[in-house]
Amino acid sequence: MLRMVRLASALCLGGTLMTACGLPGSDAVTYTEYQLTCCTKADVERIWQPGTTVELHWIVAIASTTKVNPTHKVVIAAVLMGPFSDVTTLKHATGASHAVQGSIITMDDRAPPPPTEVTTFFLPADLPSGYYQLNLKWDFGNGNSAGAGSIVRVGAQ
Question: What is the dihedral of CA 109, 152, 50, 79, to 10 degrees?
Answer without folding.
Answer: 40
